[in-house]
């Protein structure tokens, strides 16, 4: 039995008491089935879909909240969400930012496809208004916030273009190195290379140029993690040990120049 329904853009999403989540495309004359998620932990009681129809938040009968990306079949429990929640809201401008509202608190979150787990946004992001379950937020004016704090806030939200603008005003090598490192963690190679050019880090710049043609994201992640000296995350508990050994050997060889 259907327990909750939402229509957003050209997508119809509904949940059932048995724990299924269905997604249909209704832009044509007849609905087209797209996706079904089977949630084994209990019935789905509430859903919130972003304005593009590409990300879904849902709550089950235990009052546990989950984030779901139907495009990549990714589901993530929001660990801090246990307990009664009043509402979930999507950011008006950024379809990857959402907030969860409880009686005494309001927490904003950012979704990125290359990081694991849930990340809260900084407290400097201000909520302006709420309309149709969409949060409209603003950034503090630059004259009211120190440049470094703004830079860090933009990095935490993966707004690398904005962080770049602030970095150009600060003209600090450490800022450029920080930007390069964070961009690498998000596999934004072009931004990382631009930052390395500004900081005159020719060693890392040369290494990054060797990564440009890597199409396998798993291999690229391993290369990036090793460059950042995070060896454990790159090679511990690999899904295919032999493949990772071969890849790691290739990586070591690639940097003997």
Folded structure, characterized:
It comes from Physcomitrium patens. Residues 2-115 form the WDR19 WD40 repeat domain. This is WDR19 WD40 repeat domain-containing protein. With 257 residues, the protein is of the alpha+beta class. The chain has a 6-stranded mixed beta sheet, with no helix packed on it. It contains 8 helices and 14 strands. Helix 1 runs antiparallel to helix 2 (160-170), helix 2 runs antiparallel to helix 3 and helix 3 (173-185) packs antiparallel against helix 4 (189-199). The protein has 2 domains: 2-138, Methylamine Dehydrogenase, Chain H; 142-254, no CATH class.
Protein topology:
Blueprint: E1 2-8, E2 11-16, E3 20-25, E4 32-38, E5 44-49, E6 56-60, E7 65-69, E8 74-77, E9 87-91, E10 97-102, E11 105-110, E12 119-120, E13 126-131, E14 134-138, H1 147-156, H2 160-170, H3 173-185, H4 189-199, H5 202-211, H6 217-227, H7 231-235, H8 241-254
Parallel strand pairs: 9-14
Antiparallel strand pairs: 1-2, 2-3, 3-4, 5-6, 6-7, 7-8, 9-10, 10-11, 11-12, 13-14
Helix pairs in contact: 1-2, 2-3, 3-4, 4-5
């Amino acid at each position: 039995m259907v327990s909750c329904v939402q229509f957003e853009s050209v997508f119809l999403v509904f949940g059932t008491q048995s724990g299924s989540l269905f997604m249909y495309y209704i832009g044509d004359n007849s609905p087209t089935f797209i996706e079904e998620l089977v949630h084994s932990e209990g019935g789905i009681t509430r859903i919130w879909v972003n304005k593009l129809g590409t990300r879904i938040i849902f709550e089950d009968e235990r009052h546990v909240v989950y984030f779901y990306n139907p495009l990549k079949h990714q589901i993530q429990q929001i660990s801090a969400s246990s307990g009664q929640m009043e509402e979930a809201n999507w950011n008006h401008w950024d379809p990857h930012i959402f907030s969860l509202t409880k009686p005494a608190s309001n927490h904003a979150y950012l979704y990125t496809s290359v990081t694991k787990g849930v990340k809260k946004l900084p407290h400097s992001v201000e909520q302006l208004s709420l309309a149709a379950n969409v949060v409209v937020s603003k950034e503090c004016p630059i004259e009211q916030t120190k440049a470094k704090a703004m830079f860090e806030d933009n990095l935490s939200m993966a707004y690398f273009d904005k962080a770049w603008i602030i970095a150009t005003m600060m003209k600090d090598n450490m800022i450029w190195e920080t930007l390069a490192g964070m961009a690498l963690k998000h596999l934004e190679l072009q931004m990382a290379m631009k930052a390395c050019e500004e900081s005159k880090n020719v060693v890392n710049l040369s290494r990054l140029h060797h990564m440009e043609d890597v199409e396998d994201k798993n291999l690229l992640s391993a290369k990036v993690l090793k460059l950042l000296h995070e060896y454990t995350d790159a090679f511990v508990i690999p899904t295919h040990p032999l493949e990772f050994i071969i890849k790691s050997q290739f990586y070591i060889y690639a940097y003997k120049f």
